[in-house]
Amino acid sequence: MAPSQDPPGLPGLILRSQGGFYLVRTPRQDLQCRGRGRFRKDATQLLVGDEVTVQPTGPDTGFITCLEPRKNFLIRPPVANISRLVLVVSSTQPAPHLLVIDKLTTIAARRGIPVALVFTKSDLADTAPLAALYRRAGYPAYQVDSLSGSGVEPLRQYLSQGITAFCGNSGAGKSSLLNAIFPQLALATGEISRKLGRGRHTTRHVELFPTGQGGYIADTPGFSAVDLLQFERMPAAQLADCFPDFAPYTADCRFTGCSHQVEKGCAVLAAVEAGEVAQSRHQNYRAIYQELLSVKDWELNKP
User: Fold this and answer.
1) Residue 15 — φ and ψ, nearest 5°?
2) How far is residue 239 from each of residues 242, 282, 291, 293, measured CA to CA in Å?
């Protein structure tokens, strides 16, 4: 007699991960699932945003049996298959911290995740100079007034598909922004704020919420600083690859392996002097470079 086989599994998307249980959206319904033992045996961490195969075991329960390859993932927030990372930056209260922004764009570039910046509270201070700075650096940048709705529609279209992770400083206006873009998420956004403990810098769980247009959003707690070593270990020599505004010039440097710090014949430094690369971007590059230089080789290989 032929061995019995499980019925065919269903493709699914992990919407929530909490306490070893996973809420998975399938073509039929949402299922509360656990992972098969092989994931624990292999020390494989299932993440929100993972595409999986599930085997139903009851009317609304199942087991995750297979994990599809990821195109990318982040450690904080723990989300996979991100279509874009949106950095929400307030014009004031709190004031923008450009070093934090440039560290986050570095982490995203290292992970192969596109970045967009949204500058909020444009009614309180002019956000045009900052938006122009980052557009010149190669990033989409939006200026939004969540109260009046100014600038919301182009952003809504940009976010309509895929998985979007939001992050930014506490008080930058992420909840107000999400309410303005997707009004139907008003209750969910409030729930996210309570569950994630916004303002206390503690993540209890991450959850995807449908936009109603085929996409999903993942809100995250605010934070005021980024420890680059904690979230992304990399050799300092690879940092320039994470600055798209350097790319047109690096091949023209006089010396191979130029660090773009103080070398004579550095094309990036010449571009900074000529105003083609923003001084703030280069200053932050140098600060991050020095931080990475302090990382020991064994730390780079640390899981």
Assistant:
1) -95, -30
2) 5, 12, 11, 11
Q: Please check whether residue 97 is in contact with residue 85, taking contact to mean a CB–CB distance below 8 angstroms.
A: no
Cβ-based neighbours of 74, under 8 Å, separated by 6 or more:
80, 82, 85, 107, 111, 113, 165, 231
Strands 73-74 and 79-80, bridge-based pairing = antiparallel
Flag whether the pTM goes above 0.85.
Answer: no
> What local confidence, expressed as pLDDT, does residue 139 receive?
96
- Consecutive 10-residue runs of the chain (303 residues): their mean pLDDT? 60 92 94 90 90 94 95 84 91 84 92 92 84 95 83 87 83 76 64 44 67 80 61 87 96 94 95 97 96 72 52
How are beta strands 21-25 and 10-18 bridged, if at all? antiparallel
Taking the C-alpha atoms of residue 85 and residue 116, their distance in angstroms, rounded to an integer, is 6
pLDDT score recorded for residue 189:
47
Residue 265: which residues within 8 A CB-CB, separation 6 or more? 253, 254, 255, 258
Contact at 8 Å (CB) between 61 and 33?
A: yes
Alpha helices in the chain (DSSP H): 37-41, 98-111, 128-136, 152-158, 174-181, 186-196, 228-231, 247-250, 267-273, 279-293, 297-300
| Terminal-to-terminal C-alpha distance of the chain | 46
- Under 8 Å between Cβ of 299 and 229: yes
Contact 24, 54 (CB under 8 A): yes
Alpha-helical segments (H) within 2-97? 37-41
Q: 53-84 burial, b if ≥16 CB within 10 A, otherwise e? A: bbbbeeeeebbbbebeeeebbbebbbbbbbbb
CA distance 155 to 213: 13
